[in-house]
Specification:
Oligomer: heterodimer
CATH class of chain A: Alpha Beta
Number of domains of chain A: 1
CATH architecture of the largest domain in chain B: 2-Layer Sandwich
Largest interface: A-B, 59 and 80 residues
Strand content of chain B: 15-25%
Structural class of chain A: alpha/beta
Number of strands of chain A: 7
Strand order of the largest sheet of chain B: 5-4-3-6-7
Helix content of chain A: 25-40%
Largest sheet of chain B: 5 strands, parallel
Structural class of chain B: alpha/beta
Radius of gyration of chain B: 21 Å
Shape of chain B: globular
Number of strands of chain B: 18
CATH architecture of chain A: Alpha-Beta Barrel
CATH topology of chain A: Aconitase, domain 4
Strand order of the largest sheet of chain A: 4-3-2-1-5-6-7
Number of domains of chain B: 3
CATH topology of the largest domain in chain B: Aconitase, domain 3
Strand content of chain A: 15-25%
Distance between the termini of chain A: 32 Å
């Protein structure tokens, strides 16, 4: 599915300092029953966001009018657990384009890039600075610059660089995906398959 | 002489179609499992591109996540679930993919049926849109979970693009003590490494404890490797592996088998090969385990107290939130804590050996009145074994019922949901908030600990209920 190209994103951010935010919290299993990729944002963080009677929980960050933006800032080990890409779909569908943490679970990180969300891994110290800056001013803006691979707190100019391999960077910048690449090497794959013993 | 290589290197390198400059490897996939939940959107994507399935014979479909575990002969009542199951059936038929759907004699949890039918073999790369695909690493395969975009990639091209992970070896020396099962070994390891301690790594297990384990036990260990953040875990194929595989329905036969055995024997890690990280544990330190928090790393020996917040690796705030969800407090004893539900099953502990262990405790005893027990075999093959071996009679006499195969309460996508606030001792793999139903509180444990809770109604050390072992 096509996604928005990612180059430079300037936005306020939504803080979620909890550690080990797993994909069962991001999108509980009972909302995985769709056969199309539609509407997952409505159930993003469903059980943290809504009471049993479907009224919003006032103390959950997504329900606080103070916080908004296209960047989600999470605690360590964000996206652990199930491989459900629905978690990344829900985050994208809700409107986030970038997730910042000091540490991502592997499968979630892959899934994010594949659906057009940029996962930005920063140092634990920089993550604390971001949380502190948002606490001081919820409207404070971050700039995530993919071409230069930097993330900056615009209020103070403090900045850190982040890693991403050139191939994935090229994909995200241009809105390409892995399947386009793999389909272009079909003959090479067919020849390789002949060599497999099973 | 060439550089000594690890098991992981040998299998990975044999599957690299192309190294992308400054990017991931293009990795050829030998076997691809699909199920009803993570495949429909992949097929939609494929159709949107007008791409066919490149090698339909390398993909195997089974329905498991969403299926009911009672009255499987009736139409599935939940319309959304029924719709997903129908989509899988339709997509499999359209693309000529083998499909063991609901009601099929071979149906069951994908990570149970793959190995028990000989689809999983040493030296393979295996993926599935499910994180517990790591299970298949027990056979010396590189097996890991993928997202739906990657399911589409594999259908279209039989390849995925992955950077090669770092390598970790976990050695457990010595012999497992009384009442210590493979589940306890892996829960102990995760409690030592934390739920994120192996992120970025692929794990190889080594040492006497794993050498002495059955294939079922090895599958339990590799299955839960994902719970410490690793992409997967693997164990070198040995005689135990070959004995398990020989004669299974889809295992290679005759000349092909004779050719593969010598190849498989070359796969083990070479003397002198190096790992990015080497961890060693002593089996003598492992007792039956139980978790008390909301990630699988928050576990301890069943006779221990819940640790104080300042001694855990997770941040203190997250840890306290976790205990609050569970209704527990620091320094409390786990033994004697009340239990409402017992769940035996899942791709972690839904195999015949798990039912044998459970039966060994409940034999001659009675289910406690306060316990609701859900015993769910991993497949129809396991279900038949339970009946053939007389285990069903033992369970029935003790007041238990057997349900039909599926993922069930492990992820509570079907009706098998633990009610809010209730405590479940579960042999499954995740104790996340709401994992087994909104508000449900999960204590992960082995089939022996689950059985001990089922007959006493509280958290109990199973060793006190074991006969002369």
């Amino acid at each position: 599915m096509a996604y928005e190209k990612f180059t430079i994103l300037r936005s306020s951010a939504v803080p979620m300092p909890n550690e080990n935010v797993d994909t069962d919290q991001i999108i509980p299993a009972r909302f995985l029953k769709a056969t199309e990729r539609k509407g997952f944002g409505d159930n993003l963080f469903r059980d943290w966001r809504y009471n049993n009677d479907n009224t919003p929980k006032a103390d959950f960050v997504l329900n606080m009018p103070t916080y908004s933006g296209k960047i989600l800032v999470g605690g360590k080990n964000f996206g652990s657990g199930s491989s459900r890409e629905h978690a990344a779909w829900a985050i994208y569908d809700y409107g986030f384009r970038c997730v910042v943490s000091s540490f991502f679970a592997d499968i979630f990180q892959n899934n994010s890039i594949n659906v057009g969300i940029l996962p930005v891994q920063v140092s634990p110290e920089f993550l604390e600075k971001i949380f502190a800056a948002i606490e001081a001013n919820p409207k404070t803006e971050l700039e995530v610059n993919l071409p230069t691979q930097t993330i900056t707190l615009l209020a103070t100019g403090e900045s850190e660089s982040f890693a991403i391999n050139e191939y994935k960077k090229h994909n995200l910048t241009n809105g390409y995906d892995d399947i386009d690449y793999l389909l272009s090497m079909e003959e090479e794959i067919a020849v390789f398959a002949e060599t497999r013993p099973f | 002489m060439s550089t000594p290589q690890t098991l992981f290197d040998k299998v990975w390198d044999a599957h690299v179609v192309r190294h992308v400059k400054d990017g991931p490897d293009v990795l050829f996939i030998d076997r691809h499992f699909i199920h009803e939940v993570t495949s429909p959107v992949a097929f939609l994507g494929l159709e949107g591109r007008g791409a066919p399935v490149m090698f339909s014979g390398r993909t195997f479909a089974t329905a498991d996540h969403n299926t009911p575990t009672l009255n499987q002969h009736l139409p599935v009542a939940d319309l959304l679930s029924a719709n997903q199951l129908a989509a899988l059936e339709r997509n499999a038929a359209k693309h000529n993919i083998s499909h063991w759907g609901l009601g099929h004699i071979k149906n069951g949890i994908v990570h149970v049926v793959g190995p028990e039918n000989g689809i999983t073999l040493p030296g393979m790369t295996i993926v599935c849109g499910d994180s517990h695909t790591s299970t298949h690493g027990a056979f010396g395969a590189i097996a890991f979970g993928i997202g739906t975009s990657e399911v589409e990639m594999v259908l279209a091209t039989q390849c995925i693009m992955q950077p090669k992970p770092k390598k970790m070896r976990i050695t457990v020396n010595g012999k497992a003590g009384k009442g210590v099962l493979s589940k306890d070994v892996i829960l102990y390891i995760i409690s030592q490494t934390s739920a994120s301690g192996a992120t970025g790594y692929f794990v190889e297990y080594a040492g006497e404890v794993f050498e002495n384990m059955s294939m079922e036990g090895r599958m339990t260990v590799c299955n839960m490797t994902i719970e410490m953040g690793a992409r997967g875990g693997m164990i070198a194929p040995d005689q135990t592996t070959l004995d398990y595989l020989k004669g299974r329905e889809l295992s290679p036969k005759g000349e092909q088998w004779d050719k593969l055995v010598p190849y498989w024997q070359t796969l083990k890690t070479d003397e002198g090969a190096t790992f990015d990280l080497d961890l060693t544990f002593d089996a003598a330190d492992i007792e039956p385990q139980i978790t008390y928090g909301t990630n699988p790393g928050l576990g301890t020996g069943v006779t221990h107290q819940i640790p104080m917040a300042d001694t855990v690796k997770d941040g203190s705030a997250s840890y306290k939130k976790s205990l609050q969800y569970m209704g527990f407090a620091e320094n409390e004893t786990m033994l004697g804590k009340p239990v409402d539900f017992v769940f035996l099953g899942s791709c972690t502990n839904g195999r015949i050996e798990d039912f044998r262990a459970f039966a060994s405790i409940v034999k001659g005893r009675q289910k406690a009145d306060n316990i609701t027990a859900w015993l769910v075999p991993g497949s129809h093959v396991v279900e038949k074994q339970i009946k053939d071996e007389g285990i069903l009679d033992i369970l029935t006499q003790a007041g238990f019922e057997l349900r039909q195969p599926g993922c069930s309460a492990c992820l509570a996508m079907n009706e098998d949901k633990i009610p809010a606030g209730k405590y479940a001792v579960s042999t499954s793999n995740r104790n996340f908030e709401g994992r087994q139903g909104p508000g449900a509180r999960t204590l992960l444990a082995s089939p022996l600990v689950a059985a001990a809770a089922a007959v006493t109604g509280v958290v109990t050390d199973p060793r006190g209920l074991m006969d002369n072992v």
